[in-house]
Amino acid sequence: MAHLLNPLATTSQIYHKSSFSSLPKDLQDTIFITSQCLTQAAGQLLELPQSVTAQANVILARYWLVDSPMANEFSDTSAAALYLVAKMGPQPRSARDISNVYAYLLSESSLFLRTPESPENDPRSYYVPEADYHAVQTRILAIEARILYTLSFDTHVSLPHPLAVTYLQTLDFLAQPKSIISLRTIQYLNAALLSPQMLYLTHQPHALATAAIYNAARDVGAKMPECEWWEVFDVDREELGFLVVGMRSVENYLRKIKEDMPDLSVGMPTRKLIDVELQRRGVGGGHDTAEVDEVQQLMDTMDSR
What we know:
The chain has helices at residues 11-20, 25-45, 50-66, 74-88, 95-106, 130-150, 161-170, 178-192, 199-202, 205-220, 237-248, 250-260, 271-281, 290-304. The chain is mostly helical. Helix 3 (50-66) crosses helix 4 (74-88). It has 2 domains: 23-157 and 270-305, Orthogonal Bundle (Cyclin A, domain 1); 161-252, Cyclin A, domain 1 (Orthogonal Bundle), CATH 1.10.472. GO terms for molecular function: cyclin-dependent protein serine/threonine kinase regulator activity. InterPro entries: Cyclin-like_sf, Cyclin/Ssn8.
């Protein structure tokens, strides 16, 4: 049964991340949510199974629990996590494919985190020259190695999606077509990947699956038994309540980011934009990125020669 469990974040890790980070909480949430959305979008364009993309989301969250998001460009870290997970699966993607997809998503021709109006498609805006590709490849490989080192090479991720499907097959009390409830359950599980509460790092897959089923059943108006049926799946009331609220709050997080920080919610934010926002608030920025930027500039210069 060990393969159904995940290594969870410790209390000290969560406390350290929330108490000693140089970034305000709202900026941390913005970086996390947009980067996870970027990973999902890249996975779709690369035609990767959702299971692979979801594992990359979890690996990215685990890495940022320990290391600062400002250590590297957010899109590069997302690309490295997706490249790492895809490489370990049956459908690996080349660094060139990763580079091309992320170049498109980060360009102004992409609809990623932008208004539904179709922008003018300018292939020049996402064309990746050979020199730029080698620079991107170098960054991805370096971050991939950093992720593996930070996670002690433990890349095991057990997803709740298969468990949720199994649980639904055992539940006959829902009085609704299981296809509808199954779809809604999977939607909740996918949305939970974006939660800045990092639900996948603090709760085991069986609890996530149970909470998603509970939410889905409520949404479609399915008849629920009066007994505490969730205990059959080894989930107590307190944990279920926390996860139910956490999964339902993801949409509110996204809406709040768009309302409070419109400049950072159009397209993918960069470290430079975050530094500008920190300076605007009088917090100061760049102290986490100055050394990394100097090294990166040197690497890019060498690659372009």
